[in-house]
Amino acid sequence: MPEPIPVESSTISKDILDTNNPPAEHDFPALREFVARGSARRAVLDSKISLLKAELDKLLEERNALDVEIQKHEGAISPLRHLPTEILSIIFMYAVQFSFTHQHSMDMKSGPIPLSAVCSRWRRIALSQSSLWTFFPLNFEEAMPELVPVEETLSAVKIHVDRSRDAPLKLVFMPFYEHRITDLEQQVLDLLTPHVARWEEVVFYGTPAIYESLCTWSAEFLALRKLDITVYDQDEFLELDIRNVFAFSPRLEEAFVNIRTSDNTPVVFSLDTSSLRRYGAQNPWRRHVDVLRLASDLVDCVLSVTGSFDPFGTGDKISLPRLCRLAVTDVNPLHVLDTPALRDLYCSKHTADLHGRLRELPRLRKLFVGEPRIPVDLQSFMHSVPALTALCMYLPMNYASALFELLDSSPSLGQDQDTPHLPALHTLGLCFGPENYATLGEPIDQDELMGVVEARWRGGQLRSFQIYVMRFAPSESTLKRMEALRQEGMKFVLETHSMHLYQRMVPPDFCLYDDEYAMVDLMLE
After folding, report:
1. Which of 417, 427, 457, 435 minimizes the C-alpha distance to 520?
2. Any long-range contacts for 81-87 (C-beta under 8 Å, 24+ apart)?
3. Measuring CA to CA, which residue among 374, 436, 373, 380 is closest to residue 403?
4. Which of 301, 463, 303, 440 is nearest to 391 (CA)?
5. What per-residue confidence (pLDDT) applies to 109?
6. Is the CB of residue 166 less than 8 Å from the CB of residue 197?
7. CA dihedral 295, 298, 303, 309 (to 10 degrees)
8. pLDDT at 364 over 90
9. Long-range CB contacts for residues 306-311, cutoff 8 Å, separation at least 24
10. Is the pLDDT of residue 77 over 90?
11. How far from chain centre, in Å, is Cα 37?
């Protein structure tokens, strides 16, 4: 049967084909002829398409099968397959640690569980490495309780507990609610509490009621090295007493209590201080004294003092001969602490009596001070810290000119009376805010600012300068001078938010300052 030739274009008018207008009587033969010829041609095309589809399906099937075989053969020669077990173990540990710090909670699709499902070799390596299974990221804050897969979460916890065998455990527990815990969260705790002797690093948030339940464990935290707990505030709890919980933790090196958030329930606790090197807490001063008297080997200390401060109730000075870094909410603890080795100090309040305390710290090299609550003498301040190498200050704008004048000198003069302030300073952070909450005050003199920075940089010491000025609008000339310093190799950062500068200059564990400039900035937007 001859193949129908392609159908020629219709001779029928578009007025008929593209509308609902009825055709004329003489158009019917041509219409019928086109339908007949078109149908025959369409049948031929359908037949060809069917044959080609069948052929295409065969080709795709062959191609896909070949693709699988190629991948298998490529896998056989892949360097990954020939990696030593020791290298794979390191890679697995890195992946699991990254997952621990970034995932919200536990499930069957994260952590080492997927690694153990790739192939038999990876499974053997994962199961033989008990340390892979020691991470328990239990952050329930990010998802509504009804959206958390209960069975999957519990299964993941059980698997990790079993496969970690006797290895020390690392826990992060953060409940969804501040006033209670959910049934799932309680079930997870019930799975973990029989293994408290293996808890090595613990970050724990919760209500006072949760911590009260800890008192019933009567456990010995034999492996505990790092403890970080936060007790949410509840009106019915004036003070939480958990002195019996962590009293026996002979390996404890680091303890932070209520230091991550504000307005927490005060906690009475006892710590095994025989190995304690880092301590931080938000508590009344008398509670701090109980720990500091026994922790003479502290290297880092963070003291957020609540309530009134009674230095006379402290007794003799507290000696901390090895303390290198200290954060305090105000100057008061410095009156009763003997810290001859102190290098870094982060003090949230700048008061006049701070200067006298600074003179007693000859090894001090890094200093942060918050906004002055009352007028302070900047020259007296400069004289009290002559050996500083890093300084970060919060100041009202009306202090700017006096500060620039004190800093504006070359660090190369010889006589004592002519020696510039802070001659060794290589890192400087300045945060300028309003004189009061009603007005920003006079803008800083940009030419004076840049002159000081340029002189310090070219004098040979200053290497890093970071500044935030509320509602700062640098001129084109100022921007060019900033860029010129960057091109010469100086780190010059113009911050857009005061908190960014604070976070650059102060390590996270030492952040106590309540940045009011940030709040004012928001109100003025």
Report:
1. 435
2. 85/125
3. 380
4. 463
5. 84
6. no
7. 50
8. yes
9. 306/266, 306/282, 309/285, 309/333, 310/285, 310/286, 311/335, 311/336
10. no
11. 73
pLDDT in tens, 307-349: 887 765 667 889 999 999 999 998 999 999 999 999 999 999 9
272-293, pLDDT tens digit by residue? 888 999 999 998 888 899 899 9
Written as six digits, the tokens of 293 are: 């008297």
Phi, psi (deg, nearest 5) at residue 396: -65, 155
Could you tell me if 359 and 379 are in contact, meaning their C-beta atoms sit under 8 angstroms apart?
no
**How far, in Å, are 110, 186, 250, 493 from residue 153 at the CA level?**
11, 12, 32, 44
Give the H or E element holding residue 156: helix 150-163
Among 289, 244, 287, smallest CA distance to 266 is for 287
Cβ contact 525:501 at 8 Å: no
| Tokens coding 131 | 């340390």
Asked if residue 420 lies in contact with residue 452, where contact means CB atoms within 8 angstroms, the answer is no
| Count, residues in the chain | 525
Q: What is the 3-state secondary structure (H, E, C) of 233-300?
A: CCCCCCCEECCCCCCCCCCCCEEEECCCCCCECCEECCCCCCCCCEEEEEEEHHHHHHHHCCCCCCCE
Residue 522 has pLDDT above 80, yes or no: no
What H or E segment, with its residue span, contains residue 170?
strand 169-174
For 442-493, write each residue's pLDDT tens digit.
789 999 999 999 999 988 789 999 999 988 899 999 999 999 999 999 999 9
Give which of 87, 100, 102 is closest to 134, Cα–Cα.
100
Neighbours of 259 (CB within 10 A): 24
